[in-house]
Amino acid sequence: MSQSAAQSDADHRSDTAPSSPLLTALVSATAVLSTFIAVWIMFNLGNALGLFVPLETQYLYGLIALLLPVVFVSHSITGRPRQGGVPIYDWLLAGAAFAIPATFVFEAETMLVEGWEFAAPDYALILSYLFWALILEALRRSSGFTIFAICFVFSLYPVFSEAMPGILRAQSTDLSITAGFHIFGSESILGVPMAAFATLVIGFLIFGVALQYTGGGAFFLNLAFALLGTHRGGPAKVAIFSSGLMGSMSGSVITNVLTTGVMSIPAMKRVGFAGRYAGGVEACASTGGVLMPPVMGATAFIMATFIEVPYSEIVLAAAIPSILYYAGLYLQIDAYAARNGIKGLPREELPSLREVIRHGWYFVFVLALLVFMLLYLQREAQAPFYATALLLAINQLSRKHRWDRAKLVSFVVAVGKMLGDLAALLAGVGLIIGALTLSGKVGSIAYELVALAGDNVFILLAMGAMTSFVLGMGMTVTAAYLFLAVTLAPALTASGLDKVAVHLFMLYWGMVSFITPPVSLGAFAAASIAGSNPMRTGLEAMRLGSIIYFLPFFFVLNPALIGRGEALEVVLVAGTAVIGIVAIAGALQGYVPGIGRIVDSLAFAVPLRVALMLGGVILALPGGELTGFSHGTLIMSGFTLVAAALAINTLLSRRLARQALP
Question: Where are the chain's structural domains?
Answer without folding.
Answer: 2-76+84-196, 566-662
